[in-house]
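Sync notes, pocket subgroup
Present: LS, DG
LS reminded everyone that the earlier model was apo-only. Rerun requested with 2'-monophosphoadenosine-5'-diphosphate included. Inputs:
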Amino acid sequence: MKKYLVIGNPIEHSLSPLIHNYWIKKNNIDAIYEKEKLKKKDLGSMILKIKKKKIHGINVTVPFKNDIITHLEKLTPEAETTQSVNTVYLDNNTITGHNTDIDGFRLAIQDIKFDVSNKLVLILGAGGVVPSIIHSLYKMKASKIILTNRTKKKAENLKKLFKDLEIINWGQIQKFDMIINATSIGLKASDELKLDFSKFGKNKFFYDVIYNPKETNFLKNAKKLGNKIENGKKMFIHQAAQAFKIWHQIEPEITNEINEMIDK
Ligand code: ATR
């Protein structure tokens, strides 16, 4: 039986095992997908287990998407550009790191038929998934990306990867067509981003990376004012599907059952 894992810290709330084991069963694959909480110092020995074929693939989540890179032998161009790896596998005996968050985001946006081309995008936050979102937005031909983060240093580090990024001070808001909450504000039902929604105008697109709760206050307020909204659920499902495809060479089906499983 093949073994797959998602590693991170914390990891208790990860829904990756649920979704991967669902597809494993549906496709009659002899495998299991588990979660493991570990420390940064354990990353090297984890990778060794893949080399020795004791583990056949891992997903990497917060906070190790960048830390894992030093332990890998090869990066795909997507992982290289974003310096972020969420999927690891053995490719011709070479430990390879890839990033499926990029396509996950693109496919989610395509699903809901939003056209990013020539749009002005404002990103709030600079957490682990932000380089993937930025890369994806540029691939979809966004005209400009502006980013604001409480800790400015983290925003400036992103500018080293993406030269065209414009950084503005936290709390400052600029004109946009699409705004993305990539902060962790909203994970708790009472969390509120201090934004003056009356200034934004209507018919903008509000996207939240968070999918639990389904509607953060950021999305609720935006919806009330007549804007288009979307949470991070589709991105999460698509990134998982892309990883599944790499490991099992099967395109898994995104069913209603999966959507319901994640909403529970
Ligand atoms: P990751 O591990 O993916 O980087 P994270 O560190 O929890 O996730 O980052 C979440 C994002 O939410 C960060 O941009 C963080 O801002 P900082 O870089 O300043 O830490 C942002 N964030 C979390 N709590 C916040 C708060 N109370 N006010 C403003 N931003 C906040």
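DG: Residues 62-63, 125-128, 149-151, 154, 183-185 surround 2'-monophosphoadenosine-5'-diphosphate (CB under 6 Å).
LS: Residues 233-248 form the longest helix (16 residues).
Action: DG to write up.
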